[in-house]
Prior knowledge:
Strand content: under 5%
Number of domains: 1
Mean pLDDT: 86
Largest sheet: none
Low-confidence stretches: none
Structural class: mainly alpha
Amino acid sequence: xxxxxxxxxxxxxxxxxxxxxxxxxxxxxxxxxxxxxxxxxxxxxxxxxxxxxxxxxxxxxxxxxxxxxxxxxxxxxxxxxxxxxxxxxx
Length: 90
């Protein structure tokens, strides 16, 4: 039996559109905590997908190895920081 792998599909469908909508609704001065809270409230199915994917990585990773995906809140923090850096560069 071969090695099990985590599905490699998009975790958040239409991620860019959803992130832009949050920022357009709440403004570019939105802080990280507000972003995470708003994302979880507006997109619970996507939040569940992030948590589910993280748990899959955790379950399939060997003991003592780091998971290839950050924890769910850190995952959203990375999305937030990436978006902030793109709008700062514009």
